[in-house]
Amino acid sequence: MSQVLSQEEIDALLGGLDDITDSSKPEEKKQEEQTDKPSEGEVIPYDFVNFTQMTRVKLPAFEAIKDQINRGFRSTLSSILRLVVDSSVAPTEVITFKEFLRRVPVPSNLHILKMEPLRGHFLLVVDPQLVFCIVEIFLGASKIGQARIEGREFTSIEQRLIRRIVNSLLSDIEKAWQPIYPLQIQYVRNEINPQFAKIAGDDDAVIVTKFKLDLEEISGAITMCIPMTNLQPIKSRLQTTFQGEEVVDPAWKQELIRNLRATEVEIVIPLGSARITGKDLLDLQTGDIIQLDTSIDSPLIGLVQGQPKLLVEPGLHRGQRAFKVREFILNPEEI
C-alpha cells in the first residue's frame, strides 16, 4: 500500500535536491559554461527577433543624405506654399516595421514609393494635421488650422493636392541621394490605413526618419520609412564618411544673380599692336604711319577685366565708335 507524503516531507526532499546541486564541483560548472560557448568556426544561430539590435550601425552618409532632404523639403515647401516653412530633422531610429505601424494614426496619408534600381518599397507618411493645413493654404483660407481632422477621411481633392506636393518632394530625395547612389523614385500608390501599406514583414527592421515642419502656428511631420533590406546592397557606401553638397537656397541664388547683373565691368578692345626699334621710335614724325599686326577684315579680341572673352567687329553706331559681338570665347587658350 503506497504511503502519502506530507507537505513537510516533500519540502525536505526538495531541499535535499538543492543541496546536492549546490555541492557540485566548481570544475564541473566551469566545464559546462565552456561547452555552452560556441567554439571558433562553429555556426551561431541567427536571431531574427533581435535583428534591429544587430543593425544599429553608424551610417554617416545616410545622415548627410537626410540633412540634404530636410533642406530640400524646406526650400520646396516654402516656394510652393509661398510662406516661410521652418523644418528640422529628428534622430534616425531603427525599429521593427510592426512598431512603426503602431505609431501611425488612422486615417493617415501614406505614399508607397519605389527606389529604382534598389529592390523593395519605402513609405512617405504625411501627418493628417499637415495635410489639412496645406489644403487650406491652397484653397486660400485666411486663417489656417481651423479644419476638423478627427473622425473623417481625406477627400479626393485633398488627396490630389497632397499628391502634387509629394511629387515635388520626390525630386529633393533624388538630389540628396545623387552623390551616394543615383536613384529614381517612382510613385506606386497612396493608402489611408497603415495595415494596407505592408512594405515589409512585422519583424523586419526599418530606418525611420522624421522631418518636423512648422507652418506659421501649425506643426506637423513628414516621416520616411525605409526597410533595412532595401539598403543592404549599398550598406558599405552608407557607412563611409560623406560631405554632402549644399542645397542652394532659391532666394539667395536670385539675390546673387541680381547683384552680378548690376556689377560694372571694364571692356577694352585693342585695335592691334606693332613692334618697332628704338631708332624708328626716335625718328617718328607727324604723319608717319605705323602698321598694326591685325587685318582690317579680321575680328578683334575683346578683353573683359583683362581676360579675352569676345570676338568683335569695330564700327560706328549712332555717330559713336562701337563694336559688334561676333562670338564668345569659351577657351582662351585657343586664341
Question: What does this 3D model show about the protein?
Answer:
It is a single chain. The N and C termini lie far apart (122 Å). The chain is elongated. The protein is 35% helix and 24% strand. The strands form 2 sheets. Strands 1, 2, 3, 4, 5, 6 and 7 form a 7-stranded antiparallel beta sheet that branches. It has a 4-stranded antiparallel beta sheet with strand order 8-9-10-11, with no helix packed on it. It has 2 domains: 51-256, 3-Layer(aba) Sandwich (Chemotaxis protein chec), CATH 3.40.1550.10; 264-277 and 297-335, Surface presentation of antigens (SPOA), CATH 2.30.330.10. It has 335 residues and is α+β, with helices and mostly antiparallel strands. A hairpin with a 2-residue loop joins strand 9 (300-304) and strand 10.
Helix content: 25-40%
| Largest sheet properties | 7 strands, antiparallel
Q: How many whole angstroms does the radius of gyration measure?
A: 37 Å
CATH architecture of the largest domain: 3-Layer(aba) Sandwich
Coarse structural class:
alpha+beta
Top-tier CATH class of the largest domain: Alpha Beta
First-to-last CA distance: 122 Å
Shape: elongated
Unreliable spans: 49-55
Task: Give the name of the CATH superfamily of the largest domain.
Answer: CheC-like
Order of helices and strands: HHHHEEHEEHHEEEHHHEHEEE
Approximately how much beta-strand content do the residues carry? 15-25%
- Look at the structure and give the mean pLDDT: 79
CATH topology of the largest domain, by name, is: Chemotaxis protein chec
Number of self-contained structural domains:
2
Number of strands: 11
